[in-house]
Amino acid sequence: MSLPLLIEQALNGLQLGIMLFLMAAGLTLIFGVMGVINLAHGSLYMVGAFACAAVAAASGSFWLGLAASLAAAAVAGALVETTVIRRLYARDHLDQVLATFALILIFSEGTRWLFGSFPLYLDVPPLLQGAVALPGGVQYPAYRLAVIGLGIAVAIGLYLLIARTRLGMRIRAGENDREMIAALGVDIRSLNTIVFALGAALAGLAGATVGALQSVQVGMGEPVLILAFVVIVIGGIGSVRGAFYGALLIGFVDTAGRFFLPRIAGLFLPPADAGLLGSGLASMLIYAVMAVILALRPKGLFASHA
Amino acid sequence: MPERHAIPVRSLLASLAIVLFPLAYALLANLSGETFHVTLATRIAILGLAATGLNLALGLGGLVSLGHAAFFGIGGYVAGIVASHAMGGEPLPFGLPASAQMASVWALAMLAAGLFALVVGAISLRTSGVAFIMITLAFAQLVFYLAIAWPGYGGEDGMALILRNPFFGLATMRPMTFFLIAFGALLAGLAAFAIIKASRFGAALQAARQNPDRLAALGVRPDRIQLVAFVISGAITALAGALYADLNRFVSPSMLSWHMSGELIVLVVLGGVGRLAGPLAGATLYVLLEHFLGGVTERWQFFLGLALLLVVLMGRGGLMSLLAPKGAGHG
Amino acid sequence: MAEPILRVAGLRKSYGGLTVTDDVSLDLRPGEIHALIGPNGAGKSTLIGQICGSVMPDAGSVSFDGRDITRWNTAERARAGLGRTFQISTILPEFTALAHTMLAVQARQGTSFRFFRPTALDRSLRDPAMQALARVGLDGRAEIPAASLSHGERRRLEVALVLALGSKALVMDEPMAGMGSEGSRELTALLSQLRHETPILMVEHDMDAVFALADRISVLVYGRIVATGTPDEIRSDRLVREAYLGEASA
C-alpha cells in the first residue's frame, strides 16, 4: 500500500469529519442551550443542498447557491424554531421526538412536491475543479481540499464566537443556567431563535458543500443526521468541543473502515461479495466504536457538567 | 398501577371496540370477498402488536426507544431466514433444525430479539433522556447495515418468502386464516401487556418511569426493572415482525429502517401512551389513513406530518383519551 | 450505650478546589433522633447524599448495621434497611397513596420481578400497606392519587413508605420544609413516636422541631462538624453561636 493512497484516505477522513462537525455542532448547541432533541436537523441539511442546487442552476453561480443555502437553512431554522420548537422547550423528549419526526415528514414530502422525486446535480465550481498536487506525490481534488479548509475556518469561527463574543457568552450562560440568563435580562427567546438559526445555517452549509460531491435528493440528510447523533453521543451531549473530536474520530474510523474492510474481506471472499460485506461492515464499524466508548464512558468523552 | 376502583366502564367499552374493530373489519371484508381488506385488517393487527410491544417500554417504562425497528426487523429476518432454509432443506446455523412451523419461528424470533435487546438495553440504560434515544437509534442502524451487508439473505433488495410458514396444518395462505393467526397473536400480546401492567413488576416499572430515585430509595434498582421490560418489549415487537414477514412474504432492510422506529412511536402516541388499546387504536388510524388518504393524494405523509404536529402541539393523550378520558387513579 | 446502627467516619468530598465535606464523623444510635443543622451551604445535602449512596465520597467510610456500605448504591443501601425521605417530597404522581405503600411492601419482600398476579387483589401486599398508611393517619386517603395529596399528607406518606419498607434507620432531609404550624406539630408527634422503632438522622432548619425532637444535635459549618451534643449543650456552644449569629470566628 502506497503512502499517497494513505494520505488521500486520511484527507477523505478529515473531510468527512469536518462535514459531520458542521452538523453535530448545530445539534449539540441546540441541545445544550434549549434542551431540545431535533430530529429535523437533517431536513435543514437537505434544505441547504436544494437551495444551493436550485440557485446555482438558475444563476449559473455555485457561490450564489452557497450563499442561498446558508440563507435558506437559517430562515427555515428560524421559522421552525418560532412556530414549533419554541413550544417544545417545556415538553418531554417524547414530544420533541414526535414533533421533529413530523417535521421530517413535512420537509421531505414538501421538497418532493416542489422539486420532484429525481435527484438534482450540483457541479463543483470551475475555480475548484481538477486536482491539486500535494507533497508526497498525492493528487487530491481541489474542491475537497477547499471543503476541508472551509470547515476548519467555520470551526475556528465557531470557537471564537462562543469563546470571545457577547453572543457566545450568552450561549455559554444559557447552557449552564437558563434561569440565570433570564434573570440577567437576556432575551432568551431571541437567543434561542438565533442559536437555532445558526445551527440550521451550519447544517445547510454542510448540505450544500456535500451536495456537489454527491447527488441532491430527498432523504439525503437522514444518514448524516444519524452519524451526527453518534458523534455527539460519543463526544458528550451538549459539548461543542466533544462534537469536534467525535466528528474527526468518526470521520477517520468510517473512512478507514471503508478502505480496509473490503480489502480484508477480499482475502477470504470473492471480490463482489467482499466489496458488499466490507462496506456493510464499515457502516457498522462506527456503531460498534460508539458502543465500546459508551460501555466505558456512558456520558461520552467530553461530558459537560451541566 | 394497582387499581382498586371498579374498572371504568367507558374505558373498557372503548378498548373492546378498538380490539374488535380489526376482527369485524376482516370478517366483513371476507364475507364480501374483498381479500385486500382482510390483508389491511391483518396489517392493523400486526402493527398494533408491534406497537403494543413498544408501549411496554415507552408507555409503562418511559423508555423512548427510537430503535424498535431493530426488533421488528430481527423478527422479520428470522422468519425469512428460517423459511428459506426450510425450503432448501438446509439446517440453520448452530445445527438448529429448520422447522418453518410458525410457532417455532416465533420462539426463535423472540429469543433473538430478546438477546439483542438485552445487549442494547444494558448499554443504553446506563444513560437516560436524549442519549438513550440516540443510542437505541444507533444500535438499530447497526442491524440495518448488517442486513444490507450480509450477502446470503438478499442484502439491500431483501428476500422473498415463496410461501407463508405453516401453522399446524392450517392453510396460512388464505387471507382470513392468516388474519386469525395474527389476531390471536395480537390478543396474546395485549393480554401480556395487561397482566404485566397490573403485576408487581408493572408497578415497579411504572414507578421507574415516574421517579427512578424514589424507586431506588425503596431498594429496587430502576435500571434492572427497565432492562427486563426492554427485553420483553423487544420480544413482543419481534413476534410482530415475524408475522409481518409472513404477511408480505417479503423481508427487507426497510423493516429495520429508522423510519419504522419513528412510525412505531407515532402509533403508540396517536393511540395513547401507556393505554392498553392505545397502540392498536394508533395502528388502526394509521393504516386506514394510509389507505384512504393515500388513495386521494400521493403526498399523504405531508398531511400525516401536519396532523401529527397538531396532535403533539395541541393536545395530549391520543385517540384513547378522546374515546375514554383517563379518570383519577386510573392507569 | 447501644452500638450505633449508622456510623460515618472521616468522610471527605470535594468538587474541584471546593471541599464540601471535610473529615465528617458522626453516628446514629438506636432509639434516638440525631439532628444535623447548619447554615445554608454547609454541605448538608452532599453529606446526606454520601450517606444514602447518591454521591460517592473521596475518602472515609459509611457503615450501617455492622457492614461497610461506603461503595454501595442507593438501592443496595435501602435493601439493607437504610430508608430515606427527600427534601422535596418525592412521590409517584400517578400512584395512589396505597399504591405507594404497596410498592414499598413488595420492595421489602424483594418481589418486584413477579409478572402475573394482579397486585390489586393481593392481600399480602394490601394488608401491610394499609397498616402503614393507618399509622400515619392516611388510611382514609388510600385511594387518592399522590398528586392530589396536600403537602403535609405527602410528608406523612413518605414516612408511611419507610414504615412499610421496614427500614432499620431513617435519613430525613428537611422533613418539616414547607409545612404549616399545624402540620409541623402532627409530624413532630409522629416522628417522636417513631424513634423507638427506627432511629432517625435528620437535616432540619426548623429549630423548634429540632429542639423538640432531637436527642443529639450535630452542627455542620463549611463541611465540618463543629459541635455535637445534647440540645442544651448545643444551645450554649460558642462555635454554634458564631456560625449562626455571624460573630467573628475564633
Automatic annotation (TrEMBL), chain A:
Subcellular localization: Cell membrane
Signal peptide start-end: none
UniProt organism field: Fulvimarina endophytica
Stated family: Belongs to the binding-protein-dependent transport system permease family. LivHM subfamily.
Topology of the protein relative to the lipid bilayer: Multi-pass membrane protein
Keyword Cytoplasm recorded: no
Gene Ontology molecular functions: transmembrane transporter activity
Name this polypeptide is given: Branched-chain amino acid ABC transporter permease
Name of one Pfam family that matches: BPD_transp_2
Regions that span the bilayer: 16-37, 44-64, 70-89, 101-122, 142-162, 194-213, 225-253, 274-296
Major location (coarse): membrane
Keyword Cell membrane carried by entry: yes
Keywords (A to Z) from UniProt: Amino-acid transport, Cell membrane, Membrane, Transmembrane, Transmembrane helix, Transport
GO biological process: amino acid transport
An example Gene Ontology CC term for this record: plasma membrane
InterPro entries in the cross-refs: ABC_transp_permease, BCAA_transport_permease
TrEMBL record, chain B:
Signal peptide: none
GO MF assignments: branched-chain amino acid transmembrane transporter activity
Alphabetical keyword list: Cell membrane, Membrane, Transmembrane, Transmembrane helix
Keyword Hydrolase recorded: no
Localisation per UniProt entry: Cell membrane
Domain of life the protein comes from: Bacteria
Record keyword Membrane present: yes
Record-annotated membrane-spanning stretches: 36-56, 63-83, 103-123, 130-153, 173-196, 227-245, 265-289, 301-324
GO cellular component, one term: plasma membrane
Primary location group: membrane
Lipid bilayer topology: Multi-pass membrane protein
CDD domains noted in UniProt: TM_PBP1_LivM_like
PANTHER family: ABC TRANSPORTER ATP-BINDING PROTEIN, HIGH-AFFINITY BRANCHED-CHAIN AMINO ACID TRANSPORT SYSTEM PERMEASE
Protein name per the record: Branched-chain amino acid ABC transporter permease
Species name: Fulvimarina endophytica
From TrEMBL, chain C:
Record key words, sorted: ATP-binding, Nucleotide-binding, Transport
InterPro entries: AAA+_ATPase (IPR003593), ABC_AA/LPS_Transport (IPR051120), ABC_transporter-like_ATP-bd (IPR003439), ABC_transporter-like_CS (IPR017871), BCA_ABC_TP_C (IPR032823), P-loop_NTPase (IPR027417)
Molecular function GO labels: ATP binding; ATP hydrolysis activity
The ABC transporter domain, residue ranges: 6-247
Cross-referenced SUPFAM superfamilies: P-loop containing nucleoside triphosphate hydrolases
Keyword Nucleotide-binding: yes
UniProt superkingdom: Bacteria
Pfam family name, one: BCA_ABC_TP_C
CDD domains: ABC_Mj1267_LivG_branched
A single Gene Ontology CC term: plasma membrane
Stated family: Belongs to the ABC transporter superfamily.
Protein name per Swiss-Prot or TrEMBL: ABC transporter ATP-binding protein
Organism name: Fulvimarina endophytica
